[in-house]
């Protein structure tokens, strides 16, 4: 899910605060932190008692013209206010591209695209389908593929990073991304990616065109705060090339955010001073391309800087009950409450009232032995608990009109070896694209 260490920081999984001083009689939502400066060693699947228990190949292989495609190789609480909120009508679905910039910060731009499209823990024993391309795929026509009856298009969106999208190796390929799109399209009509390095933007848009699936994309720019804009400019160029090659129309959303433990303190203001010019520059680039697109930011749920939010159209917040040490039976309700009180209410207090969505939420299915802590509780990382979170979150969020990107499409084994703990095991699929032993509920998003 990353193109370097910065992508890991964007999800901010390492820094959630496990403060033993929190207790159920006096929950402090401000302690739910995503601090990128904290060591990841404390976030290895170890849970403290929750205070919330009682709360209700590469792009060179890609044809420039899609017509040149030739056989390319290569049970939850039922009585809380969130569940009782009335459904928000979303009208007709739109196709999106979102462009984002991030280090401890992120910029995202939502772009509607006029593309004709068809995309498609080590617990290998829990997989229920074959790996790789869906069976029956015509290698000369990737839009012709067999659907998996176990997959249901119920998720509002999915978080996605093509495997092999980390610098300097860049081992991704159009063939692999096409296979991913064939599967993803059976689960959702929206995805978000985290950066533009390794040709991710063009690979994803090319795969959508080749497969002709109804999938929209949030493109990402993941800058580094300390490199004088080098990473930002590099990815900006990749995004611009992708939009020029594959087209973009009808910008829908923008998100921006500063990643600091004290987002409106001195460190947060310093971060905002770096990010806001990049947001404005992204707007200028899109305007020069004739695209009137909204620009936004993504970050951990507790890290939104007010000044940054006031210059964007859209904010995306990571909200992970696992890292807040919430038990699985309370996870869905906690996610909804935290998102509403920490992110939505903040946005509504600002004059521009930026639209908010959940950038990431989910539940891990395994823990690696590296950085493993045997004191794993209150609820373990398992396929069964992922199933519980899906059952108690997805349809309720859809009914309430909550926009979210479920984390994530597939396991990322490089994270298990680099960071250990639960880091590599958040996927609906394993790293070989075997669907885990899950049942997806039927509910429209």
State the helicity in percent bands: 25-40%
- Measured between the Cα atoms of the first and last residue, the distance is 24 Å
Encode the helix/strand succession as letters.
HHEEEHEHEEHEHEHEHEHEH
| Beta-strand residue percentage | 5-15%
**What is the average of the pLDDT values?**
73
Uncertain residue ranges = 1-107, 109-130, 249-258
**How would a textbook summarize the main sheet?**
7 strands, mixed
Radius of gyration: 20 Å
- What is the general shape? globular
What's the number of extended β-strand segments? 11
Number of helices: 10
| Class by SSE composition | alpha/beta
What would your notes on this structure say?
With 445 residues, the chain is of the alpha/beta class. The chain is built from 10 helices and 11 strands. It has helices spanning 5-11, 81-84, 174-184, 200-211, 230-246, 266-288, 306-309, 328-349, 383-400, 413-418; strands spanning 97-98, 105-111, 158-159, 190-192, 216-218, 220-221, 254-258, 295-300, 314-318, 355-361, 404-406. The strands form 2 sheets. Strands 1, 2, 7, 8, 9, 10 and 11 form a 7-stranded mixed beta sheet that branches. A 3-stranded parallel beta sheet has the order 3-4-5, with no helix packed on it. Helix 3 packs across helix 4, helix 4 (200-211) runs parallel beside helix 5 (230-246) and helix 8 (328-349) runs parallel beside helix 9. The chain starts with a helix and ends in a 27-residue tail after the last helix. Mean pLDDT is 73; it is low at 1-107, 109-130 and 249-258.
């Amino acid at each position: 899910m990353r193109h370097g260490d910065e992508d890991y920081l964007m999800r901010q999984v390492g820094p959630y605060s496990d403060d033993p001083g929190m207790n159920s009689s006096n929950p402090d939502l401000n302690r739910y932190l995503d601090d990128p400066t904290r060591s990841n060693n404390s976030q290895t699947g170890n849970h403290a008692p929750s205070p919330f228990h009682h709360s209700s190949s590469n792009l060179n292989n890609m044809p420039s013209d899609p017509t040149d495609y030739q056989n390319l190789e290569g049970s939850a609480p039922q009585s809380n206010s969130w569940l009782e909120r009335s459904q928000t009508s979303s009208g007709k679905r739109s196709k999106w591209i979102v462009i984002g910039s991030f280090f401890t910060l992120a910029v995202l731009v939502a772009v509607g695209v006029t593309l004709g499209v068809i995309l498609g823990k080590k617990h290998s024993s829990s997989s229920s389908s074959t790996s790789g391309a869906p069976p029956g795929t015509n290698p000369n026509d990737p839009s012709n593929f067999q659907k998996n009856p176990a997959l249901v298009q119920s998720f509002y969106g999915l978080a996605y990073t093509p495997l092999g999208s980390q610098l300097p190796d860049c081992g991704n390929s159009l063939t692999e991304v096409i296979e991913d799109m064939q599967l993803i399209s059976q689960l959702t009509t929206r995805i978000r990616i985290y950066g533009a390095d390794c040709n991710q933007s063009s690979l994803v848009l090319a795969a959508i065109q080749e497969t002709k699936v109804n999938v929209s994309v949030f493109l990402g720019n993941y800058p580094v705060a300390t490199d004088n804009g080098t990473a930002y400019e590099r990815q900006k160029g990749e995004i611009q090339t992708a939009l020029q090659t594959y087209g973009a129309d009808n910008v829908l959303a923008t998100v921006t955010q500063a990643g600091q433990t004290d987002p409106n303190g001195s460190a947060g203001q310093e971060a905002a001073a770096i990010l806001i010019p990049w947001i404005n520059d992204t707007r200028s680039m899109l305007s020069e391309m004739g695209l009137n697109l909204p620009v936004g930011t993504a970050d951990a749920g507790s890290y939104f800087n007010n000044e940054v939010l006031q210059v964007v159209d859209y904010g995306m917040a990571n909200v992970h009950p696992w890292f807040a040490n919430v038990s699985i039976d309370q996870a869905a309700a906690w996610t909804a409450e935290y998102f509403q009180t920490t992110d939505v209410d903040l946005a509504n207090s600002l004059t521009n009232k930026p639209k908010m969505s959940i950038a990431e939420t989910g539940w891990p299915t395994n823990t690696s032995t590296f950085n493993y802590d045997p004191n794993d509780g209150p609820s373990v990382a398992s396929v069964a608990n992922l199933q519980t979170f899906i059952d108690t979150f997805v349809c309720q969020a859809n009914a309430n009109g909550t926009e979210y990107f479920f984390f994530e499409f597939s396991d990322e084994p490089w994270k298990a070896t680099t960071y250990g703990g639960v880091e590599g095991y958040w996927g609906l699929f394993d790293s070989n694209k075997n669907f885990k032993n899950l049942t997806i509920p039927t509910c429209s998003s």
